[in-house]
Amino acid sequence: MTEPGRVVLVTGGSRGIGLGIARAFAALGDRVAVTYKSKPPEDANLVALKADVTSDDEVDAAFAAVEERWGPVEVLVANAGITRDGLLLRMGESDFGDVVDTNLTGAYRCAKRAAGPMVRARTGRMIFVSSVAGLAGSAGQANYAASKAGLVGLARSIARELARRNITANVVAPGPVETDMTDALPEARRNELAASVPLGRFATIDEVAAAVTFLASSQAASITGAVLPVDGGLGMGH
Hints:
Helices cover 45% and strands 16% of the residues. The protein has helices at 16-27, 56-69, 93-121, 132-136, 142-162, 180-183, 187-196, 205-215, and strands at 7-10, 31-36, 46-50, 75-78, 124-129, 167-174, 227-230. The longest helix has 29 residues, at 93-121. The protein starts with 6 loop residues before the first strand and ends in an 8-residue tail after the last strand.
């Protein structure tokens, strides 16, 4: 589905969705690097780079390491994210700001760093991992939902700015996904979440990864500024 050997960088690729996306690109024959904040993934097919997306210097160093090893990043997947859930009346400003800084501003930092070489090469793919929460809202997640909604505006602005350089920018918006984090939820809560999804189940990591690799492929060359939901119909209409 994609050209072999491209240089791919996935932020927040040490576990869960990010790791699944990275492994999907590696399985296609691409050269894949991931950033991690605390613990690197145990996967010999990936190059792991310690980098915090809230730091301009660490983002620059990660890109520089990839460029030194393989050349410029051709596919950027901005996946790194955190949550600090809480009701609005109890949410501290630092909880709001830190989530936005990681999830939204971190994606901006990475996109800006990737854009220069992509413009010079006159080609590139950027995919931003958002959430159904960013489209439909989520009680107790004002910070997270705001950051994920912001990715849509960021991606669509980049799409308009860089389309003439054959650079696309798109968003994948998962709903509930089967991960270690959701596996740890109480069974009653998992059943409640699954029941809210029209398909009646969580998405798999592989299904999210398939959407990302498609948007990075040559078959999706004319798709830019799009939001592709992988949510079992939970956010339909947004």
